[in-house]
Amino acid sequence: MAACQAVFFWTVPFMGLALLLALIMREPPLSDEMIEVAAGKVDVAEYRGSTMTDHWHGTLRHVRGAELSGDTNQTSGMTRLEAISGKTVGSTKVWMGQTHVAPHTNSGDHHHGATETAIYVVSGRPSFVFADGDNEIRIDTEPGDYIFVPPYAPHREENPTGEPAVVVIARSSQEAVVVNLPSLWTPVDRGNNGSEGGADRES
User: What is the pTM of this model?
Assistant: First the structure.
């Protein structure tokens, strides 16, 4: 038993040293701070709270619901609030925010240029209207439903009920591209990516 204790006493420190050397010699090399963590000189929690400067650790951004900005393109009959965008968090491929439609209100007809739009219904029972040939098609929704709007698709939101409707919107661009239209049948120039006459576009 004494021999086993002696072996354990001398082996464990060398195993720790070997592990530390292996970490130091690995590719890519560890930062000085990470080596100190491995050596027990820096607490892991303290290290995790430090600022990361390597290429794979990005900074998460938190936008509170009370801090959404109305400084974005608007359409009559509805209010857009911007949450995630190039302006607010530096995003380059996605825009996200909310749209509020008051009771018994219709938005103007519009489309969103080349961007794809995904909509999640948070509250209320909004309807989404688009043209199919000579006919208007209505999609009536309820909380929990999703809507997909293809690029350049003219549409409008309607809220025929007596309660406000709130939806969350995500688009495949950090720009809030909104092209307001006289009607759902207005010809759309797909080549201009939302910059044709009558367009509103974030810079």
Answer: 0.65
Is residue 3 within a helix (H) or strand (E), and if so which, with residue range?
Answer: helix 2-25
Would you write out the chain's pLDDT as a tens digit for each of its 203 residues?
555 555 445 554 555 555 445 555 555 555 555 555 455 554 544 545 555 566 677 889 899 988 787 766 666 677 888 888 888 888 888 889 998 889 999 888 999 899 999 999 999 999 999 999 999 999 999 999 999 999 999 999 999 999 999 999 999 987 667 888 999 999 998 865 543 334 443 32
Nearest to 182 by CA among 153, 154, 148, 150: 154
Burial annotation 149-159 (CB, 10 A radius, 16+ → b, else e): bebbbbbbbbb
191: helix, strand or coil: helix
Distance CA 46, CA 21 (A): 22
Cis preceding-peptide flag for 160 (omega within 30 of 0): no
Which DSSP helix (H) or strand (E) runs through 167?
strand 165-171
8 A C-beta contact, residue 95 and residue 171: yes
170 contacts 95 by C-beta, under 8 angstroms:
yes
- Rounded to an integer, what distance in angstroms lies between the CA atom of residue 167 and that of residue 160? 15
Distance CA 83, CA 75 (A): 17
